[in-house]
Write the structure tokens for this entry.
Amino acid sequence: MIFREIEQKETAINLWHGRGMGYGRGWGGGWSFVQMPQVPPPPSGALRVAAPVDINAGLDSPISPRTGRAPYIALVDVLRGRIANINVIANAAASAPRGAGMQLGQWLITSGVRVVLASLLGPNLEMVLRQAGVRVEIIPAGIKLRDALVKLGIVSEL
């Protein structure tokens, strides 16, 4: 019985000294943040829509099946049912070792995005967007960005 108590105390001490706890196992390996590009704010009265896309082809870009690690993010500014501006930006968070969805979510919020079109969201990205009041629309992967915007009624026929 005494041996078991000593063993339990040693285990507790080891846990408090950083051994056996956490993802990094005491060897470092914390978060690394990537530098996301700065984008100008949306025009006054415009709705900024973001979508993960596989290629940089403007409105003809297909929606990516992944969001946090999609190669590109399309930012579309819609003003009175018409597209005022479109930017397709390389997703720097895609190369992050971990936390790509969280970093992308924070960047989308600071960029003024109010609607996200995606086929699949990770739990952390979805939580960040919903807490910030960003509307999330789930759409099938592979359809063109143009078709998704029309289908959801965000823009009129293009």
About this structure: The two ends are 78 Å apart (CA to CA). The longest strand covers residues 82-90.
